[in-house]
């Protein structure tokens, strides 16, 4: 009799455990469902930065290790063969997160339903070419791509402009695609931000991850202002000011700034090529933090549309310190600006004002030519 009761109890316990396990599996099942793939557009994809960037995106460096992706690659007819070769390599890479690859020279096909657009394509500045001429050459490119994104991309598509002059190319795109929210158009300043972090880490002989809250103000040009006044370093005794630890204001206000400003040229001189690896890494950092968020108490530098913060004229695409949460960025407010910083910030803003005037002039000329062509 005791054996029968014991058996009955065992059966009840076993049934309860089985039921409990089913409930647990049911509760966790939505978490285990694979995310919907995100479509990532890369223009100028057959170039050097694109070649370095593609495997990083495919491996989840940009959007995380659990986010499936479909890569859309756009380039010119001249680069079509190289673009198809890159598609073959992506397929051969057997990346677990990669759910598809579109390689095309058709801007409409490239932009269709994309969630993220990384704009690498553009006319680069070459020796002897003035910055205003580069702006003029890029107007037609960004007008066409802006129109395609506006009409065919996903409604909340986030755009990162990398091609130089990045700030003003982003401005052209913004003006050419008024239905895309201003908050969804940014330009790459993370490369400069990372360069500044690296210089401080080298100087102090600390891990770069221990340095935070450096700021790059302004334009992605030699007028940009790398600012360490609010930067800190994690030490065994807590967070310490970069200025206190380095204790060399002369270096911080001169050599450090010019080293960061001219780092790209120094790399070209050393490699005979531009800084494609670090640029690709910075693209991933920028998008990762924008979509997945910055750590609490930490900010990064992004080129965004000014709202007048820190007395920067509204409408400029200017690099500010930003924090990110839930796929949105916000400018860090309330930072004290000394006279030295004010002068540097205004100088780079003035350069962007000049570029904006040149861009508007080019946009007007392009629109006028387009209208004349239509009438004929």
TrEMBL record:
It is an enzyme of class 1 (oxidoreductase). SUPFAM superfamilies: LDH C-terminal domain-like (SSF56327), NAD(P)-binding Rossmann-fold domains (SSF51735). Keywords: NAD, Oxidoreductase, Tricarboxylic acid cycle. Substrate binds at residues 125, 131, 164, 195. Residues 39-185 form the Lactate/malate dehydrogenase N-terminal domain. NAD(+) binds at residues 44-50, 75, 138, 162-164. The active site is at residue 220. Signal peptide: none annotated. It holds the Pfam family Ldh_1_C. It comes from the Eukaryota. CDD domains: MDH_cytoplasmic_cytosolic. NCBIfam families: MalateDH-SF1, MDH_euk_cyt, PRK05442.1. Belongs to the LDH/MDH superfamily. MDH type 2 family. PANTHER family: MALATE DEHYDROGENASE. This is malate dehydrogenase.
